[in-house]
Design a protein that fits this description.
single chain; alpha+beta; T-fold; 9 helices; globular; EC 2.7.1.180; lipoprotein; FAD
Length: 344
Amino acid sequence: MLVVLLLLSLFLTSCKDQTPQLVREQQFVLGTFGQIHAYSTSTKEGNEALTKAYQRIHEIENMMSVAIQDSDVDLINRSAGLQPVEVSEETLKVIQEGLAYYEVTEGAFNIGLGRLIDLWGISIESTANPTTRPPSEEEIQAAKSHIDLQQLEIKNGEVFVKDADMRVDLGGIAKGYAVDEAAKTLREAGIESGFVNLGGDIYVLGPKPDGSLWKMGVQNPEVGSTNVIIKIELANRSIVSSGDYQRYFIDEETNQRYHHILDPKTGYPTDNELTSVTIISNSAIEGDVWSTAVFIMGLEKGLETLETLPDVEGILVTKDKTVYTTSGIGSEIELLDTSFTLAD
C-alpha cells in the first residue's frame, strides 16, 4: 500500500510539473517598454529563458543603438568622413538589410536619416527633452542633403560613411531584429508558447498551451485614446504598428502637431491620409520596415505594394477612421470600435 501511494504521489507530482506555467518579465530596453511572456513546464527554466532573451536584446542594443557611446553605430557616425569602421557581423547584416529595403521601398525606408531625426528631435532618445518648435526650412533642406545612402560604403566587413555630415540611424529596423532574435532565443531554450513585445513590435510564438491563438489588438490611433479598435488572433507571426500618434510634439505658437515618421523626400513628418499602419508578417524586422515604409507611401501605393509581398499583410487606418486591409487578412480581423468603418 505504501509503495502504491508513493507511486501515485510521484505520478501526480509529475503531471503537475508538466502543466505549463506563465512566466513574464518587463524591462526598459532599446528606449522603450519591453515585455516578454512565456509558458514553461518549469518556472525556473522559464525565467532563465527570459533572462537569456533580454540579454540577447541588450547585446543588440549595445551594438546598434545610436544613443550608446562606442556602439557600432556610434563609431560609424563619429568616423563619418574620416575612416572606415570595423563592425560586428550582426550590425553589418542589419545595415545590409537596411540598404536592401531602401531599394525595395524606392527610398521610403532610409537608414541614413540620422541628421534629419536629430534636427526634428522626436526620436526615442529625445523624449526626455521634447522639442517645442519645428526646424526652419533652411535647416531641413540642409539636413536633407546628407541622407544619400550612396555615401555609405561597405567593404571587407568595414562601414564607411563618406559624407562627414551624414548620420546612420538603425532605429527603424534594429528593434524588429531584436524582437526576432529574442523569440529565437526563447525557442532555443525550449519555449514553444509566448510573445516578445518591444514597444509595439511583437512576435508571437506558437499558440497558447491550450491550443488557442494569441489575441492581439490594433490600438486606436487617435491621440489620447488607449482602446483597441481591432482584434486579430495569431500564432508564430509578427504584428508591428507605426502611426502618427506614437511620438510627436505640438508647436507652441501654431498648435500644430508634428509626428516622428519623416518622409525622406520632403524632410518633414509624413502628411497623407494615413494615421496608422499595422503589418502582420513572419518576422518583426519585416513588420518594422514595412509599417514605416507603407505609412510614408500612403494608402493607395501602400496597399498596392503590400499585395505584392508574400506572407505580408497590412491593416491601414485613415484619418477619417476607415480601416483598409490587404486581401489576405480582411476576414481574420474583428472590428471592436464601431466609430471606425471597415472599407469594402
